[in-house]
């Protein structure tokens, strides 16, 4: 292929990230985290076996429903939290009625929970570790001057960096899947790919809970959907992080800003029910897995298409501004 | 002959401050052009505009006829540059750096990469990480990078920064050889006069964003070489005789054996004959060739010079 080509530019970006050993750092953190969660999971199963003398999931689930109902009966539960608990009871009851184990033991279930829990904070954090200095690092090292005085238009250089971000988003999701399956499988067993799982519960913060659209999926299909949603969130965080990297020449400051964006998301959702328009903020919409699992979204009016649209618009605006700034501004 | 590098009324205004004020310059093939000025005069800003890192407020830059603002890719294909420092990826090896930048250039293959490595004499260390390189080696790797695309114009911004005298000499010889072999134009900026004086064919002296003087090094030195030191047995006795000669502007005693005369240096021989005719014993008659430094100090107001 004749140079300069987009593929060559992407190869350069991958080379730089590869040589900084970022993916290795992320993988090690991931291995440590998954190992800890697996062990915690194992301890929980052990404890159950001791207490109940059995690991029949039906007994377990029935117990959980009773526990939740007991909590609902006590007076000091907040209204919003009460709603979530009620949905939980209804959902668990539905699983029980249809004789489907929502927590089928095995590595695939571990993966399901890990992707669901990791998408709002852990995975975005990893993409920030990988990509935060993709532009600002060139400023810190001064290499931006060499990079931008070569016969390649600036928009192509930034496009290569963005495509590299998407590539690493895919690699990150893949590595997370492999690591969480491989490590949890040692303790929890490897099977469960075809275990049925229910999706399509519809819950809204105003109190309606519907099972009209519920259908069964094999675990592998559910996992693919779940990983797809994770990919979207991580790609969006990567894109916004790219913009911050273009705007903020100092990498540490850039990471700080992105951390604030990530952390304020869950904070806002826990306070946000009274601030309706916070649903238009991108970081409030990162919990895409709540739709898949049928939990109530934090704010009324939020649906899967709504959240996807909000994420898409924010990402495109961030990308457009990054391109504008990168191609138009003087470089000192 | 068409200039390879042409600056046309180049101006940069930041806020209300005029950083670069209406600079026009032509650099020709096979020429080493010195860009001289104290720190903060605007040399690096000008270079940044040449390589398209900064947009001029007014005016434009052409490289081999291609406008940097309108035909960026074609223009950059004809140029290689080191801006400020040789900025390369420290966590990559020298070869990986060259390979990465080669992927941004048309028609640069592994053979060409090896050629430039040999040219700058980095073969022994090329596969080591750049962070282990000395400043001189980084400088050479930077030059190798700039030469990858066989440029018609090479820009070296303060290339001798951090080099020892030996390194400076090597660099000078290297640039001379390069110009002779390839006929490219080299723009070298510096705030150190001695380097430019030995290296450049022509110089532009820059101060506070303006070019205050352009000319060949030879012409500038001619202009400055206007004093003659006369060595005699007794200065005080000879002084009145010298002052009797019409062709001099001024004559002063420096010490017992030396008189310094301001005059047109082309008349030195005539002065010698005049003194001989009057039986003055002349031990030496020395044209005092001043460095550019004196001119530089006068032109730039004497601030911030090395």
TrEMBL record, chain B:
Pfam families linked to this entry: ABC_tran
InterPro entries to which the protein is assigned, alphabetical: AAA+_ATPase, ABC_transporter-like_ATP-bd, ABC_transporter-like_CS, P-loop_NTPase
Residue ranges the record marks as coiled coil: none
One MF term in the entry's GO annotations: ATP binding
Ranges of residues in domain ABC transporter: 5-233
SMART domains: AAA
Keyword tags: ATP-binding, Nucleotide-binding, Transport
Keyword check for tRNA-binding: no
Family to which the UniProt record says this protein belongs: Belongs to the ABC transporter superfamily.
Protein name: ABC transporter related
């Amino acid at each position: 292929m004749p140079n300069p080509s987009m593929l060559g530019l992407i190869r350069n970006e991958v080379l730089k990230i590869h040589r900084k050993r970022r993916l290795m750092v992320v993988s090690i953190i991931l291995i440590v985290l998954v190992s800890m969660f697996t062990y915690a999971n194992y301890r929980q199963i052990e404890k159950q076996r001791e207490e109940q003398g059995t690991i029949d999931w039906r007994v377990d689930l029935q117990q959980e429903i009773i526990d939740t109902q007991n909590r609902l009966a006590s007076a000091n539960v907040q209204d919003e939290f009460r709603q979530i608990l009620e949905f939980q009871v209804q959902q668990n009851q539905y699983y029980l009625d249809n004789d489907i184990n929502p927590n089928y033991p095995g590595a695939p279930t571990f993966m399901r929970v890990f992707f669901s829990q990791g998408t709002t904070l852990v995975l975005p954090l990893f993409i920030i570790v990988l990509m935060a200095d993709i532009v600002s690092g060139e400023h810190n090292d001064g290499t931006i001057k060499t990079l931008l005085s070569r016969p390649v238009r600036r928009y192509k250089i930034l496009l290569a960096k963005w495509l590299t971000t998407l590539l690493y988003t895919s690699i990150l999701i893949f590595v997370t899947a492999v690591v969480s399956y491989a490590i949890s499988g040692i303790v929890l067993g490897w099977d469960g790919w075809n275990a049925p799982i229910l999706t399509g519960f519809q819950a809204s913060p105003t109190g309606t809970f519907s099972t009209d659209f519920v259908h069964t999926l094999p675990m592998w299909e559910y996992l693919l959907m779940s990983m797809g949603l994770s990919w979207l969130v991580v790609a969006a965080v990567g894109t916004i992080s790219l913009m911050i990297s273009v705007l903020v020449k100092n990498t540490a400051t850039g990471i700080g800003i992105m951390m604030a964006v990530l952390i304020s998301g869950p904070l806002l959702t826990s306070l946000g029910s009274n601030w309706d328009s916070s649903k238009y903020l991108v970081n409030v919409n990162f919990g895409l897995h709540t739709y898949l699992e049928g939990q109530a979204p934090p704010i009324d009016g939020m649906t899967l298409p709504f959240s996807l649209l909000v994420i898409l618009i924010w990402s495109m605006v961030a990308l457009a501004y990054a391109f504008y700034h990168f191609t138009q501004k003087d470089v000192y | 002959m068409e200039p390879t590098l042409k600056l046309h009324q180049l101006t940069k205004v930041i806020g209300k401050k005029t950083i670069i004020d209406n600079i026009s310059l032509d650099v020709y093939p096979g020429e080493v052009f010195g860009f001289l000025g104290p720190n903060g005069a605007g040399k690096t800003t000008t270079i940044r505009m040449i390589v398209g890192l900064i947009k001029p407020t007014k005016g434009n830059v052409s490289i081999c006829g291609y406008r940097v603002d309108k035909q960026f890719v074609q223009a950059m294909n004809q140029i290689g540059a080191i801006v400020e420092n040789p900025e390369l990826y420290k966590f990559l090896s020298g070869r990986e750096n060259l390979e990465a930048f080669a992927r941004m250039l048309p028609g640069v293959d592994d053979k060409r990469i090896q050629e430039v490595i040999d040219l700058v004499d980095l073969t022994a260390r090329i596969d080591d990480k750049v962070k282990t390189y000395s400043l001189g080696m980084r400088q050479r790797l930077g030059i190798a990078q700039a030469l990858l695309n066989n440029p018609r114009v090479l820009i070296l911004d303060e290339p001798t920064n951090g080099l020892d005298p030996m390194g400076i000499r090597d660099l000078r010889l290297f640039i001379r050889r390069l110009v002779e072999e390839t006929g490219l134009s080299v723009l070298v900026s510096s705030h150190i006069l001695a380097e430019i004086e030995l290296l450049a064919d022509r110089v532009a002296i820059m101060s506070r964003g303006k070019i205050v003087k352009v000319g060949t090094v030879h012409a500038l030195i001619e202009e400055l070489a206007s004093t003659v030191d006369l060595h005699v047995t007794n200065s005080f006795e000879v002084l009145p005789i010298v002052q009797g000669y019409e062709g001099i502007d001024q004559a002063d005693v420096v010490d017992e054996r030396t008189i310094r005369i301001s005059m047109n240096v082309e008349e030195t021989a005539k002065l010698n004959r005049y003194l001989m005719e009057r039986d003055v014993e002349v031990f030496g008659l020395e044209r005092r060739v001043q460095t550019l430094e004196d001119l530089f100090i006068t032109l730039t107001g004497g601030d911030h010079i090395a």
